[in-house]
Design goal:
The complex is a heterodimer of chains A (about 400) and B (about 120). Chain A is an alpha/beta fold. Chain A folds into two domains: about 5-30 and about 290-400, Aspartate Aminotransferase, domain 1 (Alpha-Beta Complex), CATH 3.90.1150; about 35-290, 3-Layer(aba) Sandwich (Aspartate Aminotransferase, domain 2). Chain A is about 40% helix and about 15% strand. Chain A has helices at about 35-45, 55-75, 90-105, 125-130, 150-155, 180-185, 205-210, 235-240, 275-290, 295-310, 340-350, 365-370, 385-400, and strands spanning about 15, 20, 20, 85, 110-115, 135-140, 160-165, 190-195, 215-220, 230-235, 250-255, 260, 315-320, 330-335, 355, 355-360, 375-380. With about 120 residues, chain B is of the alpha+beta class. Chain B has one domain (about 5-115): Alpha-Beta Complex (Sufe protein. Chain: A), CATH 3.90.1010. Chain B has five helices and three strands. A three-stranded antiparallel β-sheet of chain B has the order 1-2-3. The chains are: A alpha/beta (about 400), B alpha+beta (about 120).
Chain lengths: ~400, ~120
């Protein structure tokens, strides 16, 4: 088990008279001092706008910004020129849906997602389908909460232009077999996009091994600041896509009536980028690598296994997603019989325990599960087995209070 | 860990729950984000709320508030029912945390809709 709590000052604050038990890292993660300091240091020592200044400070800021890009690239096994900084996963997926829509999607073409997508990996494709007269299909999930691979393959055809799947479901916890999916999709000539918001922060991810074409994740879920996210894309795919934000710093040349785009990644980073956030994200990557993603992963799996076992031992609890913790990310969604998730979350909050309750931006998935909402506890490297026990014991008290 | 006694009481023992055979006014309100639903049905006579029923599903706060609201308006004039303010509802419920105000006020929105007021 990891022991890093001292690096996260917020974890020692009190909530409603109790020490904070933060079990909502799938929504956003807390920041170690090193990351907060890195952002502060950058503002205090080296801040200037990037890429355009001739003076020393601007050169230093640009170097730090590009060094952060290189760190992020190494973190996922990519090359720096294949890393685009965005505002987050949502923006990265919208950027991709826009760009591929312009170059690859025509009327009656098909786009394939899954029933377990976060709205961020569903709505951009809905909009693209509407814009281009294409059709959006969603592969079903099994009763175990895993992707129905037979259904997925049956929905894949020579008309499929894009396959976009979540790597780790933010509700079911399911780890999808991206390698297989990518292989099948490539056989029909489709581009493969991966929503990696819940995987990159929690497990080793190597874009080369995964075999996808484009992959998006967020800084704030991996100990970094808000306002920064990452799109990785194969160089040739990034090169074919037009920008979706036009403006400063994303062109090679501009005239009154036309412009020539810059090469990626600059083409997709119009306007002043989140410079300090990128630098701090680089520091978050350093922090995670200092611990080792294998250890982060096994820590999360240990807590998830413990939570799953405890939840399953309680007959009044329904757990969603695969029963085998090794097939899951570090989160578990559940419901207490006859008790609304919002009541569960409010009562837990009275004891300082923060969990998520609602539909977690996956309304179609909740409809598929036949429930309006669910509770979700999610874990990260700073959570402990004691906190999982506290959650489980508190659920018994919720049951006593409202059951 | 608990809710106010009044919320627990109405959640465990809902008052006036069910449907009216032929209501004079009714409305359904829902919180799409959490799935709370409340239906309110009113029997009106001589400018008064002669009878009232609620039905619905969702969290303890929304359902307890609906039950409590039926008691608050039964026998009152329609004008009095129309004049109920958010603070009246929240005051009757006791202590509602600010993250749950939309649950607590859902039944009152249904009442206003049933009586032809904007929610």
């Amino acid at each position: 088990m990891l022991n890093v709590r001292g690096d996260f000052p917020i974890l020692s604050r009190m909530v409603n008279g109790h020490p904070l038990v933060y079990l909502d890292s799938a929504a956003t993660a807390h920041k170690p001092v090193a990351v907060v300091e890195a952002e502060r240091d950058f503002y205090v020592r080296a801040y200037a706008n990037v890429r355009r200044g001739v003076y020393l400070l601007a050169a230093e800021a640009t170097e730090l910004y590009e060094a952060a890009r290189a760190k992020v690239a190494r973190f996922v096994g990519a090359r720096p020129e294949e890393i685009v900084f965005t505002r987050g996963t949502t923006e990265a997926l919208n950027l991709v849906a826009w760009g591929l829509g312009e170059t690859r999607v025509r009327p009656r073409d098909e786009l394939l997602v899954t029933e377990m997508e976060h709205h961020a990996n569903l709505l951009p494709w809905q909009e693209l389908a509407r814009r281009r007269g294409a059709q959006l299909l969603a592969a079903r999930i099994t009763s175990q909460g895993e992707l129905d691979l037979g259904d997925f393959q049956s929905k894949l055809s020579s008309r499929t232009r894009v396959v976009s799947v979540v790597h780790v479901s933010n509700v079911l916890g399911t780890i999808n077999p991206v390698q297989e999916i990518a292989q099948w999709a490539h056989e029909v000539g489709a581009v493969v996009v991966v929503d990696a918001a819940q995987s990159v922060p929690h497990m080793p991810v190597d874009v080369g091994e995964l075999g996808a074409d484009l992959l998006a994740f967020s800084g704030h879920k991996m100990l970094g600041p808000t306002g920064i996210g990452v799109l990785w894309g194969r160089a040739e795919l990034l090169a074919e896509m037009p920008p979706w934000l036009t403006g400063g710093e994303m062109i090679r040349e501009a005239w009154i009536d036309r412009a020539v785009w810059a090469d990626p990644p600059a083409r997709f980073e119009g306007g002043t980028p989140p410079i300090a956030q990128a630098v701090a994200l680089g520091s978050a990557v350093d922090y995670l690598q200092g611990i080792g993603m294998d250890r982060v992963h096994s820590h999360g799996q240990g807590l998830t296994a413990q939570a799953l076992e405890g939840l399953r031992a309680r007959p009044y609890v329904t757990v969603y997603g695969p029963p085998d913790p090794s097939r899951r990310g570090a989160l578990v969604a559940f419901n207490l019989q006859g008790i609304h998730p919002h009541d569960v979350a409010t009562l837990l909050d009275q004891e300082g325990i923060a969990i998520r309750a609602g539909h977690h931006c996956t309304q179609p998935l909740h409809r598929r599960l036949g429930i309006p909402a669910s509770c979700r506890a999610s874990f990260y490297l700073y959570n402990t087995p004691e906190e999982v026990e506290q959650l489980l014991a508190a659920l018994d008290r919720v049951k006593e209070t409202l059951g | 860990m608990s809710y106010e006694e009044v919320i627990l009481d109405h959640w465990r023992h809902p008052r006036n729950k069910g449907r009216l055979p032929s209501p004079d006014a009714s409305a359904v309100e829902a919180n799409p984000l959490c799935g709370d639903v409340v239906r309110l049905e009113l029997a009106l006579r001589d400018g008064r709320v002669e009878d009232v029923r609620f039905d619905g599903e969702g969290c303890a706060i929304s359902q307890a508030a609906a039950s409590l609201l039926t008691e608050m308006i039964k026998g009152k004039t329609v004008e009095e029912a129309r004049g109920l303010k958010d603070e009246d509802m929240l005051g009757a419920l006791g202590n509602v945390v600010k993250t749950r105000l939309s649950c607590a006020l859902l039944p009152l929105r249904a009442l206003r809709k049933a009586l032809g007021l904007g929610s």
